Amino acid sequence: MVVCGDDGLAHRLAAELRVVYGEQVTLVVPPDVRTARPPVVGRARAASAALLDRVVSAAVGRPNGNGANGGPGPVSSEGPRGERVLEAVEATEAVLAEAGVERAAALALVYDDDETNIRAALTARRLNPRLRLVLRLYNRRLGQHIEELLDQAAALAVGDTDGGGGDTSTTVLSDADTAAPALAATALAGTGKVIQTDGLVLRAVDLPPGALARQDADQGLCTLALFSANNSGPELLEGAGEQGPRLLPDDAEVRAAGERGVMVLEQVSSSAAASQDRRRVGGGLGVAPLLASLFSRRLRWSLAGVVGCVVALAVALSVVTGIHPVRAFYYTLLDLFAIDDPAIGQSLGRQILQLLSGLMGLLLLPVLLAAVLEALGTFRTASTLRKPPRGLSGHVVLLGLGKIGTRVLTRLRELHVPVVCVESDPDARGLAVARRLRVPVVLGDVTQEGVLEAAKIHRAQALLAVTSADTTNLEAVLYARAVRPDLKAVLRLYDDDFATAVYRTLRAAHPHAVTRSRSVSYLAAPSFAGAMLGREILGAIPVERKVLLVAVVEVGGHPQLEGRTVEGAFRAGAWRVLALEGRQGVAGDYLLRGGDRVVVAATRWGLAELSGRRVPPTHPPDSLG
């Protein structure tokens, strides 16, 4: 396996392949350790090894990073987990050849830049048409086209040589798309984790402690995880023995769960039904959403008040004069616009109602003028960023509108959650999305005083800090907790040791507040690793400091599944069959056949065992380390 990248995802992916699946890995990273930093475990050793290699090279006169023509070339060393590490600025043809792409089974290109990944993929496909490619691309539409192009090129090249054969698939993934649903669900209480595949939508929800003990509670289709024993909301760190979370427990463990919180599979439905539900909830382009987008709430209430008064006057006129209600409404409108004849010689009640209608007409003029001005202002400011409204409350403050923040913002708006964004870069890629979704944005450095206050942090329900800088995220959470100690906070942190220290400190300082930390690279790495091994990973569900994978597996060739019933194929702590692909429900006594494709929930080590890889007899902790 060859992994090329320039950030934490490359190191996470290499560790996943090496430690979990037992693969031989060659890692290609830039020589600057500040750009591509390995995981905390072994980082100092890796830096020391790289420095020692340079010193020895200079002492013996061996070329260090220079090719035969004096240009930059790859420098080879051994990583902290036993993988081979090549230091190269870019994955050129020479670097890929040195990494052994011509003999590799799979190549993952996980550079942060889409163009760099596409260029390297085209080169690698030319060097080895049989190579399984996994690309990290943020642009979804471009990714679909590139995937088709590379698959066609591989098919032609393999067909020209020996008539085909081998796995030459190309898979395009996005770490932002993988992590965004989990980050959004973590920030919202009661929000389920939704995994979607061809024809099926699976929804997992968290139940409070003691929910399984209540007879009237909805216990879901099956239990996916047990939370820590004293986890009443915030996550508990590992190392607590039996108090830690348990993935895919058996029935005996579920019955003995007591007051532990649980995650259950609540629903398995067809994607068509889910789309109809979303359209029903979200609504179309109706009159109410259109008015809400054009006019402020105060103006809408004013218009509603005027309409109510007109209706009341029409009813009163019908009662006083005895005419038909429709005719009375017509006369009221004529009086309202001052185009009816004076009610001279008519009853006193009719004259009073005409005067009141004229007064309402005078009051209607400024309201109509305000509506015109607001509508013009809405169209004029459609290309500008909105400011947070004065009465906003119960919203989510989203810090950072980079790749991850943009996907999280889109997910939150799909759930109809009010959001206020904070971004320091006026050219951030997510500002265009926020403008299109009409989401309020505060431009400013979150480390400066007054920025979070402008985002109404004191009335928010949660803070989601997803910038690429750990210290910025931490500083934002600390400042927000100083303003509101009970605020729910979700941090995007890369270093697991750093996340552990931050969690312990925040939990001790604010024991009644919810604090969560999530690593984007850790949530995305299993999906990329599974794709390199030919697995289709649908998503990753975080369970405190662990992760549960949802994947599609072909039953044929897997003795752990083939010839067994759905219930009999379940292995506690490893995997569980959730559904048959394309079918809404499946009975527990259904016999799995070789041609079936099943959707399974599995731990990282359980999926490795299903893949036929070497797995230790006792699985190491399936945690974020």
Overview of this protein structure:
β6, α5 and β7 (170-173) form a beta-alpha-beta unit. α6 packs across α18, α10 (297-321) crosses α11 (325-336) and α13 (403-414) packs parallel to α14 (430-436). Helices cover 41% and strands 18% of the residues. It is elongated, with a radius of gyration of 30 Å. Residues 33-71, 161-166, 231-242 and 273-287 have low confidence and may be disordered. It is of the alpha/beta class and 625 residues long. The chain contains 19 helices and 22 strands. The strands form 4 sheets. A 7-stranded mixed beta sheet has the order 3-4-2-1-5-6-7, sandwiched between helices. A 6-stranded parallel beta sheet has the order 15-14-13-16-17-18, sandwiched between helices. A 5-stranded antiparallel beta sheet has the order 8-9-12-10-11.
Task: Give a brief rundown of this model.
By secondary structure, this protein is an alpha/beta fold.
Features:
6-stranded parallel β-sheet; 625 residues; 22 strands; elongated
Topology record:
Blueprint: E1 2-4, H1 8-20, E2 26-29, H2 43-60, E3 75-78, E4 84-87, H3 93-99, E5 106-109, H4 114-127, E6 132-136, H5 140-162, E7 170-173, H6 175-187, E8 193-197, E9 200-207, E10 222-226, E11 246-247, H7 251-255, E12 262-270, H8 271-282, H9 287-294, H10 297-321, H11 325-336, H12 348-380, E13 396-399, H13 403-414, E14 419-423, H14 430-436, E15 441-443, H15 451-454, E16 462-465, H16 470-483, E17 488-492, H17 496-509, E18 515-518, H18 520-532, E19 536-543, E20 546-554, E21 575-580, E22 597-602, H19 604-610
Parallel strand pairs: 1-2, 1-5, 2-4, 5-6, 6-7, 13-14, 13-16, 14-15, 16-17, 17-18
Antiparallel strand pairs: 3-4, 8-9, 9-12, 10-11, 10-12, 19-20, 20-22, 21-22
Helix pairs in contact: 1-18, 4-5, 6-13, 6-18, 10-11, 10-12, 11-12, 13-14
